[in-house]
């Protein structure tokens, strides 16, 4: 345990030197792996005391790993940003600060190579999941306290956030994903559930940025221990957030679709419980998906949801497990297939069509249950047979073959199949096409035709489809040739022009195509349009101009052209009528009719759903027609209005077209006509069966009334009589439910308009009586099928009808005198409102609640019999906890909200008893191991809690007992984050904030009570309670001060943390809490570290950087204080970490010229430094070396007896390892100082000292490398002494490159040294040339490299080239040494270098051996 504790301490230090973290991580993994084997129950018995201590240690280790992992994420993000060059200004400032420190606090920011630290963090991250996995295994074996969901959730979150650090290392990513899966397997089920519930959204966001994280879910799906629970949680999240597929971000949509597909496959692979898992989500997956697809820019994103679901459920080997699923899907078949057929009508995209066809044909339902809906299957079946995708064709043939085998004599001429019978038979005929590629489909088609027994020939009795060829002459253009005249048919040319205008990408041909269209239109109007060919050609040209409307470069010209045509034709019509009798009927010319019929289609051809240009064009044409009718000529005005109404009728005819695009275009065109004549047309839409149409019509009337400056009642008055007469004409029971809903909603709207537009009449009485009767009907009808399942459409329509009836009854309650005369009807209506409160449908409950609320505002007190009838059902259910339902409890809550004064507060006692009965250990344990949102017990408990805040004020006495029940329940489900109980409990606490705060402080020492109150604070809805707790900040400070030990103050600290998160400015004004927190920190968490590392050093560094006068930063008082408390105090009394920080302060002062030379403080600092130079501790020794180097490097200072020993000590690497960066920095400072020292003996010169140290330490590779790097860093300084250094370098190359134990770094260093020699040679050659120019006598001479030294360098490069060891062939080494070899051979005086043949011997021997080993052919 000591080794494990030591390893954990090293791991917890995010500022540990490079290599420590990875080594500690490996050590902890090895220990835990051995322990996980050792502590198995079958292996050995562990004493209880050791077991307890080990469990506590492991628990603390996991919490520490969570914190360290969070630091690792921050470190990794910073390193990646610095490496990629994307660091922000704040990070750059941090780097500058760390590089200025003597000993950086964040060493990774001061590093020269960020990749080394990144590799260190990657190694640490690889070990995290493994450490957690082994820790969980050991804790569970020892029966210790398992980590809660807070710790494991933060681990999971930070692991996901750390994935960018592993970018470019797929092996590490794969390892982490696999170990994370094993970590989740080792979690307790309730912890697993809560972690995924809380962090599901975070995980999905990370998936969008890093799709490889999908591997975690995929691995967990493949594990039997986690697949069921995780599948349910992910499916719930995806279904609740299906709107994510509406986003335009392609990555978000792609991730959501892929996760849906994986989840559906996991659902299909579950051994049992598939029906329970899928049933709650089927309405959204199968029905609601089609309206969402209609709103989406790409409907394929939504259509793939049922497509992938049915594929997964119908995969091979899965068909035997779905009998229960068939029963769940059956109620949705009608809406599903109807949605498929509607979508097929609306789309022309072949991909969407194939998706829809596959959805219809792969619906997991038995054939006998599909028989009632065969009418909805014929169209998808025909499209499948006509598909160009072989798999879709085969699917269609299999479906048709299955039907022909199992249904009794299917008749293709049955009324349900007659519309597609001919297409079906022709498709089967095409499937008989011979060929190897079509062999399977041809055989299936022939079997189907054989089973039909010749019934396919009945299509011969259908009317034939005949083609029509016009008899009139086509439109031509005469072309004169030399010998004869010819005619050019313009029809195909017009088709080419239209095709070009349809293609947005053919912009270079748009102008030519449009000019052709415009010229032909003018030519036709000039010549006259007098036959069918010219009429058809005119229509095609107008269509071409319409397509040009939607092109940005042609829109102005096209709009102007169509407006000119409209003006010309309308003027022609008006002129024609002016020349005839005014009494005759106005007849519109056929050409004008053709133009109007064609121009309305401008709203149909809408690319990307945009119709702004088309709407503007239609509005301009209407305005032009209107302007032509202005003036004193009444006949002209009448004829103009007839032309406008003629155009309007064309839009109205579009509304009756079967194509939904035409319907939308017709409605859009009509919406442009805003006039009193159209109001009646709009008013009829008030009773539309479609909710969206009704709401749009109501909004339109309100807008028009506002624009007209009229009250809504006055604006609607002309249309009320027509609407009422249509509704009152027949009883509601004669209509289908959708029509009934539309009629009742229209009357509700009219009744709510003030002042009332409807007068009291017998017809209104009859309608309200019928509405009450419809509301009294049960929502559930008797079963109509052996499946014993009611169609969802029937259930939805029944609930919508009941809700519409209740809204109509509520609106009619305003007619007080009417209900006063009909008490029986009033009693029935009131009873209906009470009963509807307990409905299972949310819309019905909301309508009933609004009705009762309205009734109570117009009536001070309800009759006793009405109240008893309404309360009796719920009060009877309250007698027994087993009879409680979520609907009855929700109804009781709504009643309490309306009738608070009618209830006694003692009802709370019964509710508490029921809560305790339902919240037993078994129920809550099962709830903790599954999705709580789908648990019926949890829903009942939440509904029970939601009643308490609605009770009278006297319910304050039950606040403590209710909170106690909630605390116990959350303890049993192991909650560490807000639960479903938190919102209702927040509402109860918020009603009595002062008492709630007293209860909190009375249980402040109980962590579970504090945790539940923290959930309320984190939820954030109990604003009054939170504010009261903030105002009682002094009480929290007292609890912190009274804590007898650190752990006792943790609950109060956590409360302060949550309050600070809810209001970041709150803590700033609470000095008493801050003082108390400082006391706790000082007593429990400080380690003697001086504040200099955190405050003083960064401030001094920043201030010195901003000024050039040191005295402006440091005062004389500060220097006096630091002299007395630091430099005069014996260094032995300081801990090494504090001593290092004090030395750093001293070093910063020295760096900026303080204390000044000549002052009394200067000798004091010198003595302080000299005493510390004998320090044995490595970190202190390195720091004092740097401080001394800065002190003795002052310009003009000569202190040979201090400077030389310091520099000589820095030349040699320490015995315990490589020189630290601080020591290298000190050596770099002292080396230029040594060149200035006067010496009498040449052997004491700095360059001789370096060469002698190289000779003495030639067997110490660390010192050799240390000195060589010094030479590289000070190459300009060492150039003058190159005659000493180059022979030393040449003799040490083989030691760096070929000795055993060398690394790629040392071999790279050897190449760096050769590069240095090359640069020195070039510099020497340039100096020699310049000297010869100055001194033409040529008397100058310079040192040249001896021939044997040259041969040593070249031989090393040749030997390196011939080396076969792969470790020598690291990236960047081979190409580099070859370039150097070529460069050396090209230098003057190097061409005569002899290359020793022995360098090739080993390479030749290896080649010969390889040839000897080859077998003879």
Write a brief structural summary.
The protein is mainly α. Helix content is 68%, strand content 1%.
Summarize the topology.
Elements: H1 2-12, H2 20-38, H3 48-84, H4 89-100, H5 114-141, H6 149-161, H7 170-186, H8 189-209, H9 214-221, H10 227-240, H11 250-269, H12 274-278, H13 282-287, H14 289-295, H15 300-313, H16 323-329, H17 333-346, H18 350-361, H19 367-370, H20 374-385, H21 390-406, H22 418-431, H23 439-452, E1 476-480, E2 485-489, H24 490-502, H25 510-527, H26 532-549, H27 555-578, H28 590-599, H29 612-628, H30 634-654, H31 660-672, H32 676-683, H33 691-708, H34 712-728, H35 737-752, H36 762-776, H37 792-812, H38 816-820, H39 823-836, H40 842-858, H41 864-878, H42 886-898, H43 907-918, H44 921-928, H45 936-948, H46 959-972, H47 982-991, H48 993-1002, H49 1007-1019, H50 1023-1031, H51 1033-1042, H52 1050-1062, H53 1071-1084, H54 1096-1106, H55 1116-1127, H56 1136-1151, H57 1161-1172, H58 1178-1192, H59 1200-1211, H60 1221-1235, H61 1246-1256, H62 1261-1273, H63 1275-1278, H64 1282-1298, H65 1304-1334, H66 1347-1362, H67 1374-1385, H68 1398-1412
Antiparallel strand pairs: 1-2
Helix pairs in contact: 1-2, 1-3, 2-5, 3-5, 3-6, 5-7, 6-8, 7-9, 8-10, 8-11, 10-11, 11-15, 14-15, 15-18, 17-18, 17-20, 18-20, 18-21, 20-21, 20-22, 21-23, 24-25, 24-26, 25-26, 26-27, 26-28, 27-28, 27-29, 27-30, 29-30, 30-31, 33-34, 34-35, 35-37, 36-37, 36-39, 37-40, 39-40, 39-41, 40-42, ...
